[in-house]
Amino acid sequence: MTIWCLGSVNADHFYRLPHLPAPGETLAASDYSRGLGGKGANMAVAAARGGAPVELVGAVGPDGLWMKARLADYGVSVRHLAESAEASGHAIISVDAAGENQITIYGGANRALEPARIDTAFAEAREGDIFVCQNETNLQRAGADIARSRGLRVVYAAAPFEVEAVRKMLDVADLLVLNAVEARQLQEATGLAPEALPVAGIVITLGADGVRWIDTKTGQSRDFPAVAVTAVDTTGAGDTFTGYLLAGLDRGLSMEAAIPLAAKAAALKVTRRGTADAIPSLSEVETWAPPAHG
Fold first, then answer.
1. Where is this chain's protein located in or outside the cell (predicted)?
2. Mean pLDDT in the chain?
């Protein structure tokens, strides 16, 4: 089958700092690099590197053709990645000595997608395929509605968190993926605990506490342990997890098997600097032995 990713493509500008800046503080960066990123690109690369066929639906500007080429190099189909007159999306990413980050995003071409392109792209989707979207583009609900009408499984990653965007997606999503902070924000906004949401399946990443999977149909919940590593750069860890999770499901793995594999992929990713460029291949994940932590 195929994973259809409606998502953003960003040029990530990385600045390594001694600590994340406080309001009004000016810091000198010790290092700078540019790489491929954006939640859509990250998830698409992770899914492709995880062994699934992936179609990325989105847009880059005239300054972003290098990103389109790099996505193709990583195995992502870019047939439906438009070349827009708008400038490409980009992100300013500050990373401190502990690997924590602070990110500023400019949407650009990611927020200028045309409905006709969505219609054309998803005309090729087949029943049983997976659709995934995030909050860094426009037309998420339109894409999800088309995907649902064609029999696709709709997966929604509720990030970056926007209350109204999430509200619009809850009744069309089959699987909701979010982190602990986003889960708390959603509960505060809706008054509903995760298990009470109108979504069949919910996966919450809990950082060092692992991952929680909630099946709202049965009322069952299961926790999976985290893979302990020393983080170098946490940017893109959640996207790596989501992409690998969907790749595992696309390859026929159960949730019980796909979640630990995705957690392992995300753990390996955070030991490397970068976003999409740092996402490991399936063979790397399967053969990697996490370091022992005493």
1. Cytoplasm
2. 94
Query: Binding site, residues?
Result: 10-12, 38-42, 136, 179, 205-210, 233, 235, 238-239, 269, 272, 274
Domain positions in the chain are 3-24+31-278
- DSSP state, 179? E
Kindly name the residue from 129, 239, 250, 277 that is annotated as catalytic.
Answer: 239
Cβ neighbours, 10 Å, residue 220? 10
Name the binding residues for ATP.
Answer: 179, 205-210, 238-239
Q: What is the mean pLDDT of residues 144-154?
A: 96
CA–CA gap between residue 163 and residue 34 (Å, rounded): 31
CA–CA distance, 150 with 284 (Å, rounded to integer) = 34
From the list 167, 108, 115, the residue with the least C-alpha distance to 142 is 115
CATH number of 3-24+31-278: 3.40.1190.20
Confidence of residue 234 (pLDDT cuts 50, 70, 90): confident
Give the model's confidence band at 285: pLDDT under 50 very low, under 70 low, under 90 confident, else very high. very high
Residues placed in the known binding site for K(+): 233, 235, 269, 272, 274
CA–CA separation, 82 vs 109, rounded Å? 9
The percentage of residues in the chain with a pLDDT greater than 90, rounded to a whole number, is: 86
Distance CA 39, CA 41 (A): 6
Q: Is 92 helix (H, G, I), strand (E, B) or coil?
A: strand
Higher pLDDT, 235 or 32: 32
Catalytic (active site) residue 73: no
